Each structure stands twice: as C-alpha cells, then as structure tokens.
Predict the 3D structure of the following.
Amino acid sequence: MLTIIAAITFAPPIVIAHRGASGERPEHTLAAYQLALEQGADFIEPDLVITKDGVLVCRHENEIGTTTDVAAKSEFAARKTKKEIDGKTFEGWFTEDFTLKELKTLRAKERLPDVRKANTAYDGQFEVPTFEEVLKLLRDWRKKSGKTVGVYPETKHSTYFGMMDLPLETPLVDLVKRYGYDKKDAPIFIQSFEQSNLKGLRRRTKARLIQLIDAVGRPFDWNLTEDKRTYTQLVSPGGLTEISMYADGVGVYKDYVIPRNAEGNLGEPSSLVRDAKQSGLLVHVWTFRNEDQFLPKNLAGEPEEEIKRFIAAGVDGLFADSPATAVKARG
Ligand code: G3P
Ligand code: CA
C-alpha cells in the first residue's frame, strides 16, 4: 500500500540525527533512531549498504566487524575476507556476503568504546535495522506524536555495489515511492559522496538530493572517468553551479564553512555559504559531536557554542551525533 506523507516545511537550520542519536546509543540501531526522535531531531540519517539478497540495511560501511558481534560468531568465521572498496583494502565481514536473515542474527556494538564508554552497556542488544524498518519507525512516530520527522539516507559505495550487480538505487527508489517520499517537498534528502548516482537518481525520483563533499579526495566514481578534479574544486563557485544542475544542496565537512586555524581554534567563516546560496543550493554541515576531542580547541566543553557559530554563518542543516545539543543550540 502506498503511504501518503503531507508536505512539510522545516524552519532552518534542520537538525539531522547523524546515525541516530549516536552519541548516546550504538549508531544505526532502531534505539539510536528512537532516541533521536525523542530528542527533537528533524531528520534521521541512515547510511545505507546492501545484503546479498538485495535488502538495504543501515550501516556506515559494509564491513561489519567494527559495529557488530560478527567476529564472535563461529558460524561466520569463514566469511572473513579482504576486499578493496573505493581504492582501499579492508579485512573483515561484509554485508553483501550475508543474507538479511543471517545479518539479523548479529547484534550491534558501540563503534567508539573508549570515547563513548556508556554506550557499551547496550552492546549485544540491538539488531542491524533495514531501511524499511526506519521508514516504518518514522511512520509510527508520525501517528503517535503527530510530528513528521524526515529521513536523510546516504548511499554508501554506490559504484562498488553497482559493479557487483547489487545497485543500492533500485531498492532505494522503490522504497521512496512506496512510502510516499517521491515528491519535491517530501521530508527526505538523499545524499552521496559520488556524483554519477545522484545524476541518475535525479532522473528516477523527485526527492531532494544532496552532494556530499569530503574533507579531502574526490568522488570515487570520477576514477572511472577522465575527471581529475577534487572535492575542493567541486565547492568552487563553478563547481557549485554544476551541482545545482542535479542536486538541491551540498552536505559538507564543516571546516569548509568555518575552517580551524593552525592551533585548532575555530576561525572565520569562508564564502561557501554565500557561494552556495548564489547557486540556489542548501548547505548542510557535518559532524557536530559533544566530546572535546572533536571540538575546536577554543571551544572545549562548549559544543553548543560551536553549533551557534555555524548557525550564525548561515547553514541550513546540522548533522549531530547528539541531536539534543543541536536542538538546544538552535533555541
Ligand atoms: O552524510 C554526512 C556525513 O555522515 C558524512 O560522513 O562518513 O559520517 O557518513 P559519514
Ligand atoms: Ca552519512
């Protein structure tokens, strides 16, 4: 059955729960997403990879040794392997080698146990969720609370999965349509660090698209073309105009908007927000985290102040590991 979602306008800046409320629960679990809803996030961000049987699941990467208990499961010991993904070698267990049924026997664990020790209390409790389960969670939350919270899925390693005949975009577009998000004003943004899959999605869905811009490097799919440019060139005024032909905004590493100086202190805003707006693009920034090791030196202990500086710089959206902090900073 097709779900109907009413159009909704969120007052900027939107608060995007980065991998759920991942500062307080193991990332990419229904518990992390649920807590983000309770904290007042406007959007929930699931990173998407895929199973052997073509089901979209929520993990930051397809290697699952770091965020699940797969290493302790003797029945999967033989699945440990090495793979090259987007030019880098990884050793571990990979979602595309597991059916959904197999993946559902695993339990999530905290990625950063030394930094987020309290979260390890939840290790072993939560399943790896599917993207469809996230859409159902949001649908149920809408019915229960009367509040619409959006979804902000990221396609991970699009070229890699496409080359093994497991394209993420096929089930993604199907779910976007079935759950009522195939509209320009629907509460959804689809993001990618690659460019060609966003251009392809532009032809397949009306949902809004976000070009991610990493701190260094370039879109992986450009390695398959003659394009030798970098992400930095893609956020030049000319690059932003190019992005505006297929996407609705950029999701940038936050130093592009306010760089840090050599001492690690937050400096002055760059021209990026102004340049992007001239091209009609939204600017969403990542990632805000509460812990001092992630904060500018001059703002240690003040995660809200960091966020306020970015709001003052004119950003339209904030990816936050602790949505409660971003909601409070926004006021
Ligand atoms: O998608 C925005 C931000 O999450 C990008 O970085 O690596 O955390 O997915 P990553
Ligand atoms: Ca992401």
